[in-house]
């Protein structure tokens, strides 16, 4: 499990759930791939800041900051590139 050097406080049950939420990067459509990219981004935030109350408290600080919103979309775009490559860009051959 990737911890990014953060102290791990996850229980065995949390670890099992975190390992099973992503069975594959393969999706049927590009839209499903984009939805997966968003989920990957959300999971990344949750991994980086596991305290939901802290995330909620910080939300107001970035919700109206254009630079923060652009950065968030860049993270999603990077994840979408990964998912698209895993799906051979949904080419039909």
Automatic annotation (TrEMBL):
Keywords: Oxidoreductase, Peroxidase
Pfam families: HTHP
Molecular function GO terms recorded: peroxidase activity
Region described as Disordered: spans on this chain: 1-24
Protein's UniProt keywords contain Oxidoreductase: yes
Organism for this UniProt entry: Pistricoccus aurantiacus
Name assigned to this protein: Peroxidase
Keyword Oxidoreductase listed: yes
